[in-house]
Amino acid sequence: MKRLSSLVSMIVMVFTLTGTAVVSPASAQTGAAPVKSMNSKSKSSSHFQDVQSLPQDVKTKLDALLRDGVFDGVEDDVFGVDTLMNRAQFAKVAAIIFSLPVDQTLSQSSFADVSTDDPANGYALPYIEALRTARLTNGVDAEGTMYNPAGSVTRQELAAFLIRGLKWEAHAHSAAPIADATVDDWANGYVAYALDKKLMDGLPNGSFGGRTEATRLMLALSSYHAKHASPGAAVSGGGVTKAPALPAGIPVAPTGIEIDGEGVHLSAGDTYYDADGKITTMGQQPVIPLIVTGPDHYEFTPSQIETLYSSGFITAAAAGGIMLDNPVIGQSDNGLGKLVIKEVQSAGDVTVAVKLPYAQAGNAAASRTLQAGSMRVPASIEVSSKDLIVLAENEQPQGLTFTVKDQYGKVFKAPSSQDTSRYAIQYKLERLSGLPSLQSAGGIFDRPWDERTPADASDPNHLTQTWQLPIEKNGDYFKFMIKPTLKPVGPEGSQYTISAAVINLDTAQELASASAHLEVHNWKDLDPLMDYKVDMLSSHFAAGQYLSERKLINSPTDIDAVNANYPFYGKEVNIIATDNKNRRIDLSKVVRDDSGNPATVVQHIAAASDGVLMGAPGVNSNGIPVYRAYGIHPSPDLFDLDVTFYTPSGSRTLQKTKIEVVSGEPVARAVAVKNPVLSFSLSTQYKIRKLDGTVEVIKGSDYLAGKPTIWEFLRFCDFNGLDTKDESNFFKYFIQTTDQFGNKYQNTSDNKILDLTKANDVLKVKAVIDTDNKYQAKWSVKDEAVQDKIRIDDQMRLHYEPHAKHADGTFDYSKRNLQSFGIQLVTPSDQKSWCYVTLND
Questions:
Q1: For residue 458, what is the DSSP state?
Q2: 544 vs 771, which has greater pLDDT?
């Protein structure tokens, strides 16, 4: 099967070869020495503006070539685009990547058209002669007198150069021919073998394009692959493949491989990357997991699987209406260590196959046939609520979520690349009666609006508003976010219909629709129809006594101190409100204090027994006012509690009966980690956008060197593949411990991380590098004496100490050998939770 290159189809890059190669002292007899790469003024891909949109795996390869001085840009911050490579430039690259002896003293060429007097290509004379000496070229004419240094190089010529340079010519002559009219007969074996060994890839149209002139992107990528080609990648005469040395980061040779296709759903037209290298099928990536094992039940990590593949230890193929991406096994983000499908071209059976080609693996192989369904199309739309009621005084945003699904019941967010139809969602807000009372609150709305300010002069009553969004640009998960304008409405309230329809823009056909009814009322008008109930727990922990006995507060009744420093001991007291149609009404932000700030609806609690339960107002992690009840002393008997709360018709009091306060030593009964699988990059410059708008930039290795607590580390490395993260979007918690009284101790996201160390002195949760082998730490070296060290101290701080050090004694993270590790949390009752962390360069 032809391998199609997604990289070439994404973008065509151009590289200029600059500088003079650094040469070791001349040989006493020939003046020749193997060419070495130049490394002066080395840059990385981040220096060049026109490579920023490239996929990360391409940037990684470019970085390696830049670091070795093989390539440089045409300007300080530009590589250049669409320039063809010439034969002089190729000569220098080939000399570098094949480590050919180059005689820099040469001034006369064996080719008539190569001269040092040539201002454009004269620099290449020593390299061209090195190619001829190595028998990589005989020139362009039958007599071998002309080299044509300014001439272009075709793709099939490039394939031949690479195969000859790697000394694989004999194997190319015996390679199975390919059926490709764009490849000349003389080059067929070279092209077939270059494709087979992943030195080059086909064009997007399915052909190799043998007579097509090669661009410098092709030169760069094929040079990289040739430079890193495994010496044992060629087939021996006996038909058994001999394995090369294990690559860095791989401690044992792979012996088994499986394809895990469970839960993989493919449809015609599914794609993984678009033309800019961005994931297109969010939540539905066509990736197929692999399981690769070694001796003694060793299981390779995703990053190790990618290393095995890029080093030639894993081969993959596909048949049917399916095209694998290039590289076949992903190198980053969601595709890491998995088979990546570039495109599903047609419905029906598709087969993927993988193989470990080397002798010690016994040619282990696996294949799996999957059924690709017909192309995904939008088939239905659902709304999260059919009936919603809002108080005019409540500034809390309200949201209706419209979810578009395909014919398979999966969320549909973007049309297939094969689907020529254009789709949109037509949102409509229609006021049926009452005064204008709504405004935007984010979600699908890029621009704010207020219903009291009509945008359409032809609609003086402003009864209807519509918005049309392409289906792939639907805002925050299809959320129609609104909130009241905080202005009173009429006694009958305001009535609305909110609807969303999926439309085929080319045919104007409505494919599916959903709608909801919304009412906005003044609380005073609705109050007589409302039913109120107290919502709170019946059992509370005697936190006042517990904290005062440990001298953490002045007295058991010092509720202000408890509320300020130990809010997790407080249990919320809420009022549940429903109208006469049994619709729940949100009272979270309807009451305001004298300064106009939101206040809690609950105003006071009074226990029938003195000194057992007290309350205090506060705010929760979302900034919403709440009222908390704190246990003071244990109660020998059950008691009742009066709860006073605000309503427009005056304060009201309801009773909660049969409450108790219990005492004891809090001990962790359960512990949880928010995200059990994480990835951390040591070389990435992470950017954290703070709540105040400032941006903190820190390199991964520098952050880790600071010995962060495990909850800091887990929060920091949860970037979901992104190097920039808004602090406001961090998860609510990363580690949470629950004691026997139901109190939850957790690090929070409100611009700080709660120090759990003091609480943990009592909770007695242990944190260790996994010892149960669920997520066993893995190194790239077997010798324990030289393995990197990682541990967690009794303050729950992570200590990572690479074995390699700089001259000044600081750690050299660039030479790490730790691949991955697991963090294990254990409670005194032996309840456990794990987190698996993969380290990347």
A1: T
A2: 544
